[in-house]
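User: I'm curious whether this sequence folds into something compact or stays loose and floppy. Could you predict its structure so I can see for myself?
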Amino acid sequence: MSISTSAPSMRTTTPAMAVWNNREKIAASRSRLQALYEAVDWANDLDLYQWTQWFAIALEFQPDLIVELGRGMGNSTCVFTEAANQLGDCRVVSLCLSPDWDATVKHRVAQVVPDSWFQKLETRTEEILTTDVQALIGDSQRVLVLWDAHGFDMAEFVLGGLLPTLEHRHSFVVMHDISDGRYSRINPSYQGKRLWRGTREGFNREGHSRLYLNYLDTAVEQTIAIVDFISRNGLTLESADHSLQTELSSERISELQNSLEAKFFRLDGHWFYFSLNEKTKGEEIYFPNFQSEIVIQERQARSHVDNDHAQVEQLQGEVNHLKTLLAQAQADTGMANLLKKAWRKYKAFRSR
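Assistant: Here's the prediction. I'll summarize afterward.
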């Protein structure tokens, strides 16, 4: 296995420049992207204009490997596999615990693409935390990572397990489910809701506010770990929104709006990105320690605690229900006694 020993130089990849430089390819690919988008039929996770942005990023960065952490219904799976087919020398490895792609989506996608399209894609339905990252990356030198699996455990895997293997390669990391409060026009108030308490208490559960870190607006835990990692290493964490809003001239925006339908081009993105290649040769990068066995053991322990809490909550609910029934029964008994007394008084009155 051949791995370069110094960080390779790279042309800076940004969402704005990716969309602009690949505008003709995007325009030519609209019908295919639309067909795939409709086949997946899950716009809740990724809208069509975001498909366009990620498609452009892949074409611009020109990876030889795309690692998808979190597949869900397969929006990003289709975006990156289509890009890999157009790039030629690129493959996609998709890791996720969800069986939805194989169970419900893949057969719909197969109706709009040739069989050869799937040769660029390897989907694995397995525990991501136990992945052999050295075998996963192999000889690949340009690696695009989609980080769309949530939680601190996954953050420890990415930051302490996966990224160290990319330190001396070209890398570009895309993160979903984070909005830029400078452009998203989201109300930053608590709106009467409680503090954000992490995804273990429910992904964006009703009654809990979202998390704000400066202008990062999110509901996923790994954002905290990302900010910590970026801050320790002096890297730049930037949003697609900021890139699109500040790097494109009004003339270029107008041209993109005219050449692409509105559903394929917008100036917001709701995702962030960074690269290890911002560091120069010889600069140390600090990675957290990651041991999959320990992380999994801790997760199992938390699961047991969560189950115990759930059982306690269920029992408490049953107790409260019994208290309500008892109060009703007591109320009914009291009413019956009052009616009996009233009836006796009535009979006594009539017998006078």
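Summary: The chain has eleven helices and ten strands. The chain has two domains: 15-289, 291-352.
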